[in-house]
């Protein structure tokens, strides 16, 4: 009797475990080929090879080389010093930006500087249309709308449940 109960319990547990393992394997299969491709790729084919933001001062030669490549391709490049006092005034003029990004740790200064430089050097004013590509929920396009400029925020998000198709979401329009 005990042997029969033991076999029945073992059979049920085995079926359950097989089903759970099979389900996990099926969920992992789509990414396995990508992981293998990454593992077999050269360092130059990986984004991490080009990410010089972690040590920007140590990567100054990279940035100088990038500037030279852009210039040789006919792209205008201007080196400027950030006016810290003007940047702080701008942050006070755009408190929504400060509030949105200050919760994000080290991204705060990067994103605020990005919007500050865009605003200052593009001279965005009423009637202009500004498109924030890969806006990722940023309020910048909406802020420009409220101040009379046409801001559009666009975020591209992958939907892996439908294959590797990309869907574009337009968040805000004038």
- The beta-strand count equals 3
The percent of residues in helical segments reads: 55-70%
The backbone outline, from C-alpha atoms, is elongated
Strands of the largest sheet, in order across it?
1-2-3
Total helical segments: 7
Return residue spans where pLDDT drops below 50 for at least 5 consecutive residues.
158-162, 166-174
Class from helix and strand fractions: alpha+beta
Could you explain how this protein is built, in words?
It is a single chain. The protein has 174 residues and is α+β, with helices and mostly antiparallel strands. Among the domains are: 82-123, no CATH class; 126-174, no CATH class. It is 55% helix and 13% strand. The relative contact order is 0.06. It has a three-stranded mixed beta sheet, covered by helices on one side.
Task: Give the helix/strand layout.
Layout: H1 2-40, H2 47-50, H3 60-72, H4 84-93, H5 95-101, H6 107-122, E1 129-133, H7 140-146, E2 150-159, E3 165-172
Parallel strand pairs: 1-2
Antiparallel strand pairs: 2-3
